Amino acid sequence: MTDNASQPVTTPSRSGPPVKVGLVAGGLGAYWPQFPDLLPQLRRSAERVSERMRGLGAEVVDAGFISDAQEGAAAAEKLRAAGCDIIVGFLTTYMTASMLVPVAQRADAPVLLINLQPTESMDHAAFDTGQWLAYCGACPLPEMANAFERHGVPFRSVSGYLEDERAWAKIGRWVRAAGVRAALRRGRHGLMGHLYPGMLDVATDLSLVSANFGGHVEVLEFDDLRVRVEKVTDAEAAAKKAEAEKVFELDPSVNDDDLTWAARVAVGLDRLVADFELDSLAYYHRGLDGEIHERLGAGMILGASLLTARGIPAAGEYELRTALAMLIADRLGAGGSFTELQALDFHRGHVEMGHDGPAHLAISARRPLLRGLGVYHGKRGYGVSVEFDVKHGPVTAFGIIQRRDGRFAFAASEGETVDGPLLRIGNTTSRVDFGCDPGEWTDAWSATGISHHWALGTGHRVADLKALAGLLEMEMVEVRP
Hints:
By secondary structure, this protein is α/β, with parallel strands linked by helices. It has two domains: about 20-185, Rossmann fold; about 185-480, Alpha-Beta Barrel (L-fucose Isomerase, Chain A, domain 3). It is about 35% helix and about 25% strand. The chain has 16 helices and 19 strands. The chain starts with 19 loop residues before the first strand and ends with a strand. It comes from Actinomadura livida. Its EC number is 5.3.1.4. GO terms for molecular function: L-arabinose isomerase activity; metal ion binding. Keywords: Arabinose catabolism, Carbohydrate metabolism, Isomerase, Manganese, Metal-binding.
């Protein structure tokens, strides 16, 4: 599960546009009259690259094969107008930097250069100059790196051969990261209610979201939810309740009135998300003496969990950055469930983590449980809550740090979810083995500057997250054993 090269790069759990890859291949036009068989061979290689890009689930905007700076400028304009999420420049043989620099300068997208020679090795005894030149894509790569550096264009590349799965794993990683970057740049993120009192680590400067990621934060009132819940019909609430009974195992502690109310709130949440075109939601409202806002806040868990499973992550306690981390994890195919530290098991060497409230149901180890609670610890209200364990196997803890200077940074750590005793208190709880003393891991994780919430997702995703951090020009901190 550590290599995600075969995964499509379309949104894994919410329908949306695939990542748009702008592809331009090229070589030095002076070679074509000298070696007539060379250009047709290179064009075939370019067609194969385009085919494999589409196999990754990408929409490919092919700017064609360029042979000089003028054709490079024309390709640059075509790709700029197409609004690509990433530009891939295929170095099929030697070409000058003047052919690709305009592409990199004009595209409002990161650029990946690939050098994929036809096979693993040349037939040195049989090859002539023309055949050798088909293997010469490595030659211009340092030239491109130097030119990009001097033009202020971030540089990244992958070298290998045409059917090199190691190279395609890396290419797929960059393409997936570009898709997540695009989702963040286009994203609309709801923030409803107010900060949980005293949680200084959770507070996020809203302008920093657009500054670091792009996108928009829509500030919502709980009344935006209230008016929609008031309009929910009995039939709509009954249908949502039936959906919940199909998705969840219901513990005998579940009160039917509480479940019916949670279903009604869930329908209102669906409308809220649709009306404001939200890609994520963070929320909290304290409430008072059982009034409507308290009841709405207490009834959120069912609907928020169903939204999260659909790829619209919903995080409690006003945790905007964690909702964004959950969105990133989901778009990488990892799910991503709202998580914090719960306890350390020094006997078994495990870190126990999870949260009360919403969970990513799509990554549950088994059918998730709804449990009725007479009190939500540390919060007002009562009702139904989700109990589940993330699928056992490779996982990644991933969160977003807000630095003192306003920059965001990624924190990630790979481990394994394992079997062991779990609390039965209506919380999401997983046991994670990070391959070291749980106390040492907790100290190292806390030292990154992470807040006390993050996303827990399936699979080992650090390589993907490093690629995304690279495209965002963001710091990445990995905690390892």
